[in-house]
Specification:
Elements (H helix, E strand, L loop, with lengths): L3 H9 L16 E7 L5 E3 L2 E2 L3 H9 L1 E3 L5 E4 L4 E6 L4 E8 L8 E5 L4 E3 L6 E5 L6 E6 L5 E4 L1 H10 L1 E3 L2 E6 L2 E7 L1
Parallel strand pairs: 1-6, 7-12
Antiparallel strand pairs: 1-2, 2-3, 4-5, 5-6, 7-8, 8-9, 10-11, 11-12, 13-14, 14-15
Organism: Zhongshania marina
InterPro entries: DUF1285, DUF1285_beta_roll_sf, DUF1285_C, DUF1285_N
Protein name: DUF1285 domain-containing protein
Length: 179
C-alpha cells in the first residue's frame, strides 16, 4: 500500500500536457490509425511499438462533441478510429483504506490520475455478456477502460451495501455492481 506522499508524488511528477483545449484547427482528414480495444495503436496495418510515440499521440488525442476522436496540433486535426476506448487503466496505488482512501490509477501511457470527482469511475454492464465494463473519465472527453485485473482488485476494496459493491475514493462513492 502506498503512502499519501507516494500518491502525491505520482500525481505531481508528470510533465504537463499540451494545451489541446486551445487548439481548434479545421479538419485535415482521416488518418489510418486504429486504437484497438486491447490498447494497441495500429498505423496502416502495423502496430506502433514505440511506447514514446504512442504516449506522444495520446497527449494530443481528444474526443469532440460529435463523438469522434482526433489527434490535434495547433495547425492540424486528424480523425482516428477507436474500437472501444482509447486508453486503459493498467495499475493503481492505494494510500489508505475505508471512506478516506485515495486511489491513483495509471493509464497504459503512464499517466497517473486520482479517482474522485474530476476522474470518476463508472461501471456499465455489457448487454450481451452481462460482464462489467468499467471506465475512468479522463480529460479532453476521453475515457480509459479499466483492465480486468485492476477492476477485480478494486472490487476487493469495495464494501457491500444495499446489494451493491461501493468503492470509496477521493471523497466519492462509486458503484461497482451488484453483490
Amino acid at each position: 500500500m502506498a503512502t499519501l506522499a507516494d500518491i502525491e508524488s505520482l500525481l505531481s511528477n508528470q510533465r504537463g500536457s499540451p494545451p489541446i483545449e486551445n487548439w481548434h484547427p479545421d479538419l485535415s482528414g482521416d488518418i489510418d490509425i486504429v486504437i484497438r480495444s486491447d490498447g494497441r495503436w495500429i498505423h496502416e496495418g502495423g502496430e506502433i511499438k514505440r511506447h514514446k510515440l504512442v504516449k506522444l499521440f495520446a497527449s494530443i488525442l481528444r474526443r469532440e462533441n460529435d463523438g469522434e476522436y482526433y489527434l490535434v496540433t495547433p495547425i492540424e486535426k486528424w480523425r482516428v478510429t477507436v474500437e472501444d476506448l482509447p486508453l486503459q487503466i493498467v495499475d493503481f496505488e492505494l494510500s489508505s483504506s475505508g471512506a478516506a482512501q485515495r486511489i491513483a490509477v495509471k493509464t497504459n501511457v503512464d499517466t497517473w490520475l486520482e479517482l474522485g470527482k474530476d476522474h470518476p469511475l463508472q461501471v456499465e454492464t455489457d448487454a450481451l455478456t452481462q460482464e462489467p465494463k468499467p471506465r475512468v473519465l479522463l480529460n479532453h472527453g476521453l475515457s480509459a477502460r479499466v483492465n480486468r485485473a485492476c477492476f477485480y482488485k478494486l472490487v476487493e476494496l469495495a464494501e457491500c451495501r444495499d446489494d451493491q459493491m461501493i468503492l470509496h475514493a477521493g471523497g466519492e462513492e462509486f458503484v461497482l455492481g451488484k453483490t
